[in-house]
Amino acid sequence: MIGGQHLLGMQQLDSEQINAILSTAQGFLQVSRRTIKKVPSLRGRTIITLFYEASTRTRMSFELAGKRLSADTVNISASGSSVSKGESLHDTVMTLNAMQPDAVIVRHPASGAAAFIANRIDARVLNAGDGQHEHPSQALLDMLTIRQRFGKLEGLKVAIVGDIAHSRVARSNLIGLAKMGAQVRVAAPKTLLPRGLVEAYQCTICPNVEAALEGADVVMALRLQRERMEGAFLPNLREYAIEYGISTAMLDRCNPDGILMHPGPVNRGVELSPEVVDGPRSVILDQVENGVAVRMALLYLILGGEPA
Ligand code: NCD
Description:
The protein has 2 domains: about 10-135 and about 290-300, Aspartate/ornithine carbamoyltransferase (Rossmann fold); about 135-285, Rossmann fold (3-Layer(aba) Sandwich). It is about 40% helix and about 15% strand. It is built from 12 helices and 9 strands.
């Protein structure tokens, strides 16, 4: 299993490990629904969340996951820490290491930052998003959400729409879904499609959103990662919304049971029209709930727990 390892990306997991993580997470779901939301599995363990980029869902759910497993969780963000006084990543990490944490969860704008930390620290490192590289816990919670709806991942038609080039969510899902035998198609403006995508991830590129949504079981919309864009990738947001924004009428092209996903945060009226966010196909809040369970499973397994 993944016990004793770092989790830096979906690249390192095989389908058996992915299934074991998802089943363990499914078991943890009920803990969050109880009145007393706590099990003793990680009592006495210390978990640090180290966030150099903004986050609502990922950071909160890792913190809640640790707390619901009875670990001591401590949060640090770049603003408000010595990072804002000019301390290097290396020095920050060595300082944390001296405090003997068991796991460090890291989000950083540089691709490769999680691996950099993993090479320097005794604790297990979980990548909570490094630049445009990977965001494995997001892909796993997405896969859990899909598996709950369809009972499987194999053979499902998944459409990923939006800023593929800058999205670590897209990359981790492309890697993970291919390993699980899903059929992934993507639709994006040409400037937001990285070269070599089809060869690297066994996906299909669709000429437009309509084609990508035709008969899709799952539609995964992505936020434009404007913080990672240097220069003009798009004429303007209005034109993007007209061509790539997903509306109710567009969703009618999906499989009748098709679901709409988004990792959040959503820019209503840009990648999704406002009504589809809260519409009947939306599973966006299921993704959030599953996020806590998946992160409980990851912390539990990485710190030596047995899979379900
Ligand atoms: C994503 C991220 O940070 O990569 N958000 C998340 O973790 N739920 C997607 C995004 O910011 O667009």
